[in-house]
């Protein structure tokens, strides 16, 4: 098992390298640059800035410099947030995004699996249709609509919860952004669970369990659910990576000091280093969570144990 | 053991209905029979006869759209309409079941020990360690080697036969009065079939439970059952002792079932018939497991240095159990997968032919698969399916010409030419296999590789397909390689037989020699198992 983990981490290195290389050149081929403002700078100033940030050098040399520094943990200065290095910016915002994302993930997972299971057990009933309609609504309404509506109802009309900000980090502050963030994922989990649960309930070994008079509790939870969770677990990795690296929309609406907005702002402002930093971070999250999910998979399914 | 006269399970006017979008389907239409304590009763019928659904209905295991009415009394207690919580006291304890697919009937995610223990704990109570002791006894009883180690195995770590033994252990755990065995050996190799049936018989002698054997295989019935119920289209056609049924069947349907065993022999090819297809030292390796950081590829040798010489007009039967390499050999002979060896088609050396060179020969060498459901595209009409090959191999034909050829091909395989405008799902299994044969025949091939072409079919339909294949062979001087695990079918169609095991030829020879005087122990075991169960 340790060997499996090490092998997977080793194969992550070339993956990361490819991701970094592709995004480095894609960013540079996008028109404009970090210092192209609406009113052009005087050429002398521009030249000066370009030299300071080594942007006047040939692209391949910039690339080599970037890789060399990145390997040593130096992701460079942000071109827009001038007083901060990229590492500092991410280091400051990441804990907020991760904490909020983790709560949202738990809410989506527990809520989605529960609703999906209920829908599957009552397949084609009114309850099933209601849950699945809600799930459709959950996936189709974007969170820039859900966020403000939640704020309107719970913060402004009912005055129950604060409208935004991290506050003391208590549930009062986090509940609304958490729901806004979790809702679309909850809907996906509900759909996935329903589908795989319906399939699992038709499996031959479920017929065996019923034929042997086992009570419904054991048939459903012990036998059907464990198999049904396998596809759900597979979705966990991309979902966790997406939620825990922050959402630009939700963090902006609820003024959460996370890192979600850096990706969007970085890309819009051609803040090359900031975008690269975020890309590397997301790639690492995806790789790590995929590994975690594969390990969970091995625990759930003896047929794929890693040794 | 012979049954007493006590009726342990009495079925009266039992009906099973399914509500479907096309209306109500009456799967079982008011049938009645009794199961006596300690007897072996066979319920026989072809697919769709309702034999399984009868038992599923009684056990409360019907699909959601199914409903059961009528009466099924276990020791005087009515089971039909019983609430699930009450029914759960009977099923798994007093009446138990084993199923056709031991592969999927066990939960892949739990150890077999835990799965056998579950019904013990639920019906009898007691602690986990007591249950574990009982499971060890049961595994010993059903002949699982090294039970102390195997008890913590997962189903995928066992062979098909061992899994069925595990199911039997589970069925015996609570000492039932009735054991329902739904096609218990259909998914198993012949030698394993015999072992499982003998195990059931010896366990019955020891514990005295009644066995209800649901099967389509009359060979098993004849050797195993005391009484027989014959079902057709949801009705009981006939019932009586095994002897009565086989010696003096009163219904014509039963007569037809008994006569459906493949019989007759094929006329031998001319002595000087030239070789049409030859594969010398055919060897096929499959690569298994190769990752970025793993230590080089591992290979698995599926076929190991096998030589086959097929003469014009000849049929070579290739027999063997699953995993013996017989299907792989068939594909290698057609050069459909990478393989080593020297290949000749007629006078042509095709050992070094690439895909493009092979394409011109494909017309002459056709393949018919086992599964008539999976091998026909559901989105093409039958006409499109069977003329597709003509588009590739005879692109000059006009649409009208292709249609004429389709009509001729369908007539040749005994189907109504109007079939070409319909879709495969509208046909039965036997008809689909005829369509698959028409698809091969329309190209006027010289060699046809038939890979288990009758295995998915009912016995009575098998016989018809065999007759058809023999007729086509005689009319067109075709050469067949007939791959099958079913020895009675092979006997009826082959001139020459190759017995394979683990990728190698165990024995080969003229059909009569192989069946009447087998030399290898493995061949003897295969033949013994196939004709004596």
How would you describe this structure in keywords?
heterodimer, A: 307 residues, mainly alpha, MetI-like fold, B: 533 residues, alpha/beta, Rossmann fold, 4 domains, six-stranded mixed β-sheet, 20 helices, 20 strands, 38% helix
CATH topology of chain A: MetI-like fold
The CATH C-level class name of the largest domain in chain B: Alpha Beta
Distance between the termini of chain B: 17 Å
Shape descriptor of chain B: globular
Count of beta strands of chain B: 20
Strands of chain A, total number: 0
CATH architecture of the largest domain in chain B: 3-Layer(aba) Sandwich
Number of helices of chain A: 12
Largest sheet of chain A: none
CATH superfamily annotation of the largest domain in chain B: P-loop containing nucleotide triphosphate hydrolases
Poorly predicted runs of chain B are none
What is Rg of chain A?
A: 24 Å
The average pLDDT of chain B is 88
Estimated share of beta-strand residues of chain A: under 5%
List the helices and strands and how they pair.
The complex is a heterodimer of chains A (307) and B (533).
Chain A: H1 2-29, H2 43-52, H3 59-71, H4 86-121, H5 126-140, H6 143-157, H7 171-201, H8 204-211, H9 216-244, H10 248-253, H11 260-268, H12 272-300
Helix pairs in contact in A: 1-12, 4-5, 4-7, 4-9, 5-7, 6-7, 7-9, 8-9, 9-12, 11-12
Chain B: E1 7-20, E2 23-36, E3 40-44, H1 51-58, E4 66-74, E5 77-78, H2 84-90, E6 95-98, H3 102-105, H4 112-124, H5 128-141, H6 147-150, H7 160-172, E7 178-182, H8 190-207, E8 210-215, H9 218-224, E9 227-232, E10 235-241, H10 242-247, H11 252-259, E11 275-288, E12 298-311, E13 315-319, H12 326-333, E14 340-345, E15 348-349, H13 355-362, E16 365-368, H14 382-393, H15 399-412, H16 429-441, E17 447-451, H17 459-476, E18 479-484, H18 487-493, E19 496-501, E20 504-510, H19 511-516, H20 521-532
Parallel strand pairs in B: 3-8, 3-9, 6-7, 7-8, 13-18, 13-19, 16-17, 17-18
Antiparallel strand pairs in B: 1-2, 1-4, 4-5, 9-10, 11-12, 11-14, 14-15, 19-20
């Amino acid at each position: 098992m340790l060997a499996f983990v090490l092998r997977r981490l080793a194969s992550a290195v070339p993956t990361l390298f490819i991701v970094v290389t592709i995004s480095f050149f894609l960013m540079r081929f996008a028109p404009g640059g970090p210092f192209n403002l609406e009113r052009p700078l005087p050429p002398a100033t521009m030249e000066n800035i370009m030299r300071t940030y080594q942007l006047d050098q040939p692209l391949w040399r910039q690339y080599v410099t970037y890789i060399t520094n990145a390997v040593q943990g130096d992701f460079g200065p942000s071109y827009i947030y001038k007083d901060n290095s990229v590492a500092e910016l991410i280091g400051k915002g990441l804990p907020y995004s991760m904490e909020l994302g983790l709560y949202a993930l738990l809410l989506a997972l527990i809520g989605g699996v529960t609703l999906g299971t209920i829908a599957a057990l009552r397949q084609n009933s009114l309850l099933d249709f209601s849950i699945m309609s809600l799930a459709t609504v959950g996936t189709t309404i974007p969170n820039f609509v859900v966020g403000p509506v939640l704020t309107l109802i719970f913060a402004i009309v009912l005055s129950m919860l604060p409208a935004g900000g991290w506050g003391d980090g208590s549930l009062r502050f986090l509940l609304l952004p958490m729901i806004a963030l979790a809702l679309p994922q909850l809907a996906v989990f509900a759909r996935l669970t329903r589908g795989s649960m319906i399939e699992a309930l038709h499996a031959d070994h479920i017929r065996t369990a019923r034929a042997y008079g086992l009570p419904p509790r054991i048939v459903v939870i012990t036998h059907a659910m464990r198999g049904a969770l396998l596809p759900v677990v597979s979705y966990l990795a991309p979902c966790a990576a997406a939620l825990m690296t922050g959402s630009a929309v939700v963090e902006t609406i609820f003024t959460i000091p996370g890192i979600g907005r850096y990706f969007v702002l970085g890309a819009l402002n051609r803040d090359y280093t900031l975008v690269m930093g975020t890309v590397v971070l997301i790639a690492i999250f995806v790789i790590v969570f995929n590994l975690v999910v594969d390990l969970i998979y091995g625990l759930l399914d003896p047929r794929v144990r890693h040794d | 053991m012979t049954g007493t006269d006590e009726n342990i399970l009495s079925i009266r006017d039992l009906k099973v209905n399914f509500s479907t979008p096309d209306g109500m389907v009456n799967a079982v239409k008011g049938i009645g029979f009794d199961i006596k304590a300690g007897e072996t009763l066979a319920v026989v019928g072809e697919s769709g006869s309702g034999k399984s659904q009868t038992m599923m209905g009684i056990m409360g295991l019907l699909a959601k759209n199914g409903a059961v009415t009528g009466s099924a009394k276990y020791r005087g207690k009515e089971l039909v309409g019983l609430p699930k919580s009450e029914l759960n006291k009977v099923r798994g304890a007093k009446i138990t079941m084993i199923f056709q697919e031991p592969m999927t009937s066990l939960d892949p995610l739990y150890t077999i020990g835990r799965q056998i223990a579950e019904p013990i704990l639920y019906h009898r109570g007691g602690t986990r360690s007591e249950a574990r002791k009982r499971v060890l006894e049961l595994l010993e009883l059903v002949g699982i080697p090294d039970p102390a180690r195997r008890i913590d195995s997962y189903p995928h770590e066992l062979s098909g036969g061992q899994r069925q033994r595990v199911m039997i252990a589970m069925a015996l755990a609570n000492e039932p009065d009735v054991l329902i065995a739904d096609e218990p050996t259909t998914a198993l190799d012949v030698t394993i079939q015999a072992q499982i049936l003998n195990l059931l018989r010896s366990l019955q002698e020891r514990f005295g439970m009644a066995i209800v054997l649901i099967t389509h295989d009359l060979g098993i019935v004849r050797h195993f059952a005391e009484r027989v119920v014959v079902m057709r289209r949801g009705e009981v056609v006939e019932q009586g002792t095994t002897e009565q049924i086989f010696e003096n069947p009163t219904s014509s349907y039963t007569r037809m079932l008994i006569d459906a065993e493949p019989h007759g022999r094929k006329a031998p090819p001319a002595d000087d018939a030239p070789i049409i297809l030859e594969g010398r030292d055919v060897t096929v390796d499959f690569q298994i497991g190769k990752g970025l950081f793993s230590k080089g590829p591992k290979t698995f040798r599926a076929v190991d240095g096998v030589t086959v010489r097929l003469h014009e007009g000849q049929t070579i039967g290739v027999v063997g159990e699953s995993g013996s390499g017989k299907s792989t050999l068939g594909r290698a002979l057609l050069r459909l997968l990478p393989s080593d060896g020297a290949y000749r088609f007629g006078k042509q050396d095709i050992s070094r032919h690439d895909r493009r060179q092979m394409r011109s020969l494909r017309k002459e060498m056709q393949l018919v698969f086992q599964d008539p459901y999976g091998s026909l595209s559901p989105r093409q009409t039958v006409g499109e399916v069977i003329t597709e090959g003509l588009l590739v191999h005879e692109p000059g034909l006009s649409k009208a010409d292709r249609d004429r050829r389709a009509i001729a091909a369908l007539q040749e395989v005994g189907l109504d030419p109007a079939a070409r405008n319909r879709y495969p799902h509208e046909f039965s299994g036997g008809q689909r296999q005829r369509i698959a044969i028409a698809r091969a025949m329309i190209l006027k091939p010289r060699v046809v590789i038939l890979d288990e072409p009758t295995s998915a079919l009912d016995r009575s339909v098998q016989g018809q397909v065999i007759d058809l294949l023999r007729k086509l062979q005689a009319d067109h001087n075709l050469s067949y390689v007939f791959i099958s695990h079913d020895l009675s079918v092979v006997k009826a169609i082959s001139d020459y037989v190759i017995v394979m095991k683990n990728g190698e030829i165990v024995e080969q020879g003229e059909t009569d020699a192989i069946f009447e005087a087998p030399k290898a122990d493995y061949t003897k075991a295969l033949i013994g198992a196939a004709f004596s169960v």
